[in-house]
UniProtKB/TrEMBL annotation:
This is Endothelial differentiation-related factor 1-like. Residues 83-133 form the HTH cro/C1-type domain. GO terms for molecular function: DNA binding. Transmembrane segments: none annotated. Residues 28-67 are annotated as: Disordered. GO terms for biological process: regulation of transcription by RNA polymerase II. The keyword Transcription regulation applies. It comes from Papilio machaon. One of its GO terms (cellular component) is nucleus. Keywords: DNA-binding, Transcription, Transcription regulation.
Amino acid sequence: MSDWDTVTILRKKPPKASALKTEQAVNAARRQGLPVDTQQKYGAGTNKQHGTTKNTAKLDRETEELRHEKIPLDLGKLIMQGRQAKGMSQKDLATKICEKPQIVNDYEAGRGIPNNLVLGKIERAIGIKLRGKERGQPLQPPGGKK
């Protein structure tokens, strides 16, 4: 036999740890009768830093429903009437107050969450008071009270 026919392997790299953990490698080790130790790490693959808190029972006993305050329906009707009196569409009003048309739609339907900045802009655009005791009255220009 000549040197050309012989192959000398100097060193074969052992399989990496990640390759030994695959399901295929574990099943092969089981078939060969080797001892296989599998462990499930606690909280593996999750972003949990801590276990359950002490307040879980307190939260379970909580019965109050927490919801955002909504725009009253009569206020939505005032906005709609004022907008229509000025001959504006919802989109025109939204453009005038620099808000999305969906916000005007939500306010008119009584679904919007009250925001004094938005209500103030709508008041000035349609010229009707929407907040306070004089709700529905024409808006006085600044310094117009005597």
